[in-house]
Write a structure and sequence with these properties.
Blueprint (H helix, E strand, L loop, with lengths): L13 H8 L1 H11 L49 E4 L1 H6 L5 H5 L5 E5 L4 E5 L2 E2 L3 E3 L2 E3 L13 E8 L3 H4 L6 E7 L8 E9 L3 E11 L6 E12 L7 E14 L4 E15 L6 E2 L22 E18 L2 E26 L4 E30 L2 E16 L2 E4 L26 E4 L2 E17 L2 E16 L6 E17 L3 E12 L14 E14 L4 E13 L1 E10 L5 E10 L2 E15 L2 E13 L13 E11 L2 E10 L2 E3 L6 E3 L2 E11 L4 E8 L7 E5 L2 E4 L4 E9 L1
Parallel strand pairs: 5-8
Antiparallel strand pairs: 1-7, 2-3, 3-4, 5-6, 7-8, 9-10, 9-39, 10-11, 11-12, 12-13, 13-15, 14-38, 15-16, 16-17, 17-18, 17-19, 18-21, 19-20, 21-22, 22-23, 23-24, 24-25, 25-26, 26-29, 27-28, 29-30, 30-31, 31-32, 32-35, 33-34, 35-36, 36-39, 37-38
Length: 716
């Protein structure tokens, strides 16, 4: 493994690192807990971060509120879009530990995986932006696979969200909300897990007060993961460190600062999957352990994040929010690809074996500052939010190389290894430094027109600019206006009807086969639906119908952009499709359906066609559904679920590759050994279904076979 020395000292004992980072915490905790009669004071602060939406410790599959869509204080029922919250309880029960795992469990999201990269779509459009604590990020996460250990929950807003994010596809906004230091006494969790393919994970999550009255609190999360794979030769090493300090400076001032680092190293990786056809043009059915790789291949990423948050009460209930976020991603790869077919007679490759290596670094700075002002008119609650956001993503020189192998070499699929003739060198400049800058001013409001009727509306003014050191592809767009409007009508105490509209503008970062950037897309998105809130907010239901119309939509061609020597690069080629219309329906049901019985369920269907009536995004399942449920009886917890995806395909005629509809079944069994220790077993793909997670031009990627994970958690 290409392992960083940073984590060698604690990879087996993440708890030791946590203790080393927070020694004042333990000293403070010892002081405050030395006597059982000592009670910490209760502090009620206007400026303190609102904890009403925190899901950790709630034992729930739903949340009380989410502000991803508008930054307004809205319940899920009050938000005029389809909203879902994946809580900490749900993530732990379903054993969803990484971002890539998460994408495969989000209703309405289809994932096409080619290698270490995943390309998700929703409602027929690419998912191309994400948010961290409400601050949008445009640094791609195709291969970065952020670990979820440091996050409390993930808020999902379906459809267009240009009001808060600016330029972006009308697919889905995925807001990853970090854990914070909320505890005023020593609390924590230590866990370890063992699983299929020699998977071993250990983690520690510790929170405590850093002073006697608990106004300053700290939290540290560490994790180490080692695993092999069902694919021969593949190894993964994942290390995570996250720390945050939250402080109530006064009764009007709340501050939070934190940082995180993830080192993800993967050896023996594939590039582009397996060949789909043999030398006679017939489809190939490989054993899932087969892969196109060699022992020198790797795909490594280092992700560094830092953030700072200020919430200042100005007067009455008017608050100033200032958020800064930094994100840096380094990527280093060495890859082997088969451009050709499979020879059944010799069990070897037929065609051209190509190599690729590269090294990139991308830095992103985000600043989001806004005022929130709740007030009332005639006894009716109102709220206004006004803010400014700045985002700049800067990519350093992108270096590449072509590791040298023998020109006449073939790959033996029984023993896949092609030796290098020389060391890996990234001596070529694939792309010169460039940066993308986006600024926006936004105004949003919640206006109670009458007791049962609310207007949610807003507008954003955006500027967008791309600058390359060599001037290639430079372009900018100024004063782009994104309006947003929604109505929510409450009836029968528990139900509401909503309707919303937003416009879409997105400069494309996708290029065609000739390396030319596609024209920016423009469009409109409409949505209406019914929502229900039951059992005092413990259960949320939503039914939505949507329609989105766009021009200049980037669509995958199934090929890669070629380098000057004619070999494929790692950059996918796209084409523009005009008059694209996507329409569909979605249903979500989340929360407690009975005492001790939690449910997360969703089903989504869409159809997307261009102006000529041709289907677009055919590699996205038109229908998918996700179910996970858990019932707790005394010390036992029993659960499980099903993930369903309808047919998807690519190519035409004899070259068409189709994955027929399939369903994956999963089981979970938990047992509380005592009040502090819990054991849990997760069994995934229990019927060992063989399926593709990705397809492309003469390629296919198999999904994981049946696998099991045993987890032991100690909470104090």
């Amino acid at each position: 493994m290409h392992q960083s020395q940073t984590f060698q000292s604690f990879k087996a004992h993440p708890l030791m690192l946590a203790m080393a980072i927070l020694p004042p915490s333990f000293a403070s905790a010892e002081t405050s807990t030395s006597s059982s009669t000592v009670a910490l004071p209760t502090i009620s602060l206007k400026a303190q971060d609102d904890q009403s939406s925190v899901t950790e410790g709630t034992q729930s599959y739903t949340a009380k509120s989410a502000n991803t869509a508008t930054k307004l204080s809205l319940s899920l029922r009050e938000t005029p879009q389809s909203v879902k919250v994946l809580t900490r309880e749900y993530l732990d029960d379903a054993n969803i530990s990484s971002f890539q795992d998460l994408l495969n469990n989000v209703t309405g999201v289809s994932v096409n995986q080619w290698d270490e990269r995943q390309y998700p779509t929703a409602r027929g459009f690419d998912v191309d932006y994400y948010l961290f604590d409400g601050v949008p990020s445009n640094v791609g996460m195709e291969a970065n696979d952020p670990d979820l250990t440091m996050y409390d929950r993930v808020e999902l807003v379906k459809g267009a969200n240009g009001l808060m994010t600016g330029a972006g596809n009308p697919a889905i906004a995925m807001n990853m909300i970090r854990k914070h230091a909320n505890a005023k006494e020593l609390t924590g969790q230590v866990s370890t897990s063992l699983g299929s393919w020699n998977t071993w994970t250990s983690s520690a999550d510790i929170s405590t007060a850093l002073n006697t009255d608990g106004t300053v609190r700290g939290r540290v999360v560490v994790k180490h993961e080692d695993s092999d794979s069902f694919m021969k030769g593949y190894e993964k090493n994942n290390n995570v460190v996250y720390g945050v300090v939250d402080a109530d400076i006064s009764d009007k001032t709340y501050v939070s600062v934190g940082a995180g680092y993830q080192n993800l190293e993967r050896d023996g990786v594939r590039w582009g999957g397996l060949p789909a056809f043999d030398s006679n043009g017939q489809r190939v059915d490989f054993d899932r352990s087969k892969t196109v790789t060699s022992d020198w291949t790797y795909w490594n990423t280092d992700t560094t994040t830092a953030f700072a948050t200020l919430k200042q009460n100005l007067f009455n209930d008017v608050n100033l929010h200032v958020n800064y976020a930094y994100r840096e991603v380094k990527q280093d790869t060495a890859l082997l690809y088969l451009w050709g077919s499979f020879d059944k007679t010799t069990n070897t490759s037929k065609g051209t074996l190509m190599t690729w290596s590269d090294a990139t670094k991308t830095k992103e700075n985000n600043i989001d500052t806004y005022l929130s002002a709740p007030f009332s008119i005639g006894g009716l609650e109102q709220e206004i939010v006004a803010g400014f956001i700045y985002n700049q993503a800067q990519k350093d020189t992108w270096y590449s190389g072509n590791p040298q192998i023998a020109s006449d070499v073939v790959l033996d699929f029984d023993h896949p290894n092609v030796p290098l003739l020389a060391s890996i060198q990234n001596n070529n400049i694939y792309q010169v430094p460039n940066k993308t800058t986006q600024t926006g001013a936004y105004l949003a409001g919640k206006f109670s027109l009458a007791e049962p009727l609310k207007l949610i509306t807003g507008i954003r003014l955006s500027n967008w600019k791309y600058e390359s050191d060599d001037g290639v592809g430079n372009r900018k767009f100024k004063n782009e206006v994104t309006p947003y409007a929604g109505l929510v009508f409450d009836f029968l105490d528990q139900y509401s009807w909503y309707a919303s509209y937003t416009s879409i503008f997105k400069p494309e970062d996708k290029r065609d086969i000739n390396k030319q950037y596609l024209d920016p897309r423009e469009g409109k998105s409409y949505e209406t639906g019914l929502k229900g809130e039951f059992l005092n907010g413990k259960l949320n239901a939503a039914l939505s119908v949507f329609q989105t119309k766009q021009d200049n939509v980037a669509e995958e061609t199934g090929t890669f952009i070629l380098s000057p020597d004619g070999t494929p690069t790692t950059e996918k080629a796209y084409r523009s499709a005009d008059g694209v219309e996507s329409k569909g329906v979605e249903f979500e049901l989340d929360g407690e359906i009975a005492n001790n019985w939690n449910l997360s369920f969703g089903v989504a269907h869409f159809n997307a066609k261009d102006a000529q009536g041709n289907e677009v995004q055919t590699m996205s399942s038109r229908t998918n559904a996700n179910l996970f449920t858990k019932y707790k009886l005394d010390k036992w917890s029993v659960g499980g679920g099903v993930n369903y995806k309808s047919k998807f395909y690519t190519g035409d005629g004899d070259k068409r590759i189709t994955q027929n509809a399939y369903a994956l079944a999963n089981l979970m069994l938990g047992y509380d050994i005592d009040s502090n220790i819990k054991a849990q077993i997760n069994l995934n793909n229990i019927f060992d279904k063989k399926y593709y997670t990705g397809i492309g031009d003469n390629l296919m990627v198999y999904g994981a076979p049946r696998n099991v994970t045993f987890t032991l958690r100690y909470q104090f």
